[in-house]
Amino acid sequence: xxxxDDTAPWNTLYRYWxxxxxxxxxxxxxxxxxxxxxxxxxxxxxxxxxxxxxFRYRLIGSTISGYMKVDVTGxxxxxxxxxxxxxxxxxRRLLAAVSDSQKPQLIITKFPAAVQAYNHSLVxxxxxxxxxxxxxxxxxxxxxxxxPGTPIEGLDTREVTPPxxxx
Length: 167
Description:
Blueprint: H1 9-19, H2 34-37, E1 45-51, E2 54-60, H3 62-68, H4 85-101, E3 105-110, E4 118-127, E5 133-143, E6 154-159
Antiparallel strand pairs: 1-2, 1-5, 3-4, 3-6, 4-5
């Protein structure tokens, strides 16, 4: 299954983020350089700024932009129309949970049973010098065909924990 595969792209992004930790502290935006360090994932990444007025899309990879069918760069998450109100509300709650807890979350999109595809989103906190979450690094990885008109039935969330040390 794609969500537990060690070679899945979300797992590659997770391990990259873990490798950037210093003294158990999540990395900051200045500590990562995805275009140079994980260029094959760039099209599937987004950066969301944590700001006083809410979450704001700052960078959207080309694959994600294609799914959304609307340019959300610079816009508040709450002010976008890329999916239903309920899913957008769930998405904002998940972003807030990761921002507040600084614990990564893997989000599995629920589609109608007839859809033979998957969509996994990994949300990772990036902290500032004050140790507060300033941005969220998000990878969205899909497989199979998802028609742009396919309704999203909901989001399942799983906390992601570091893998056990190699023995």
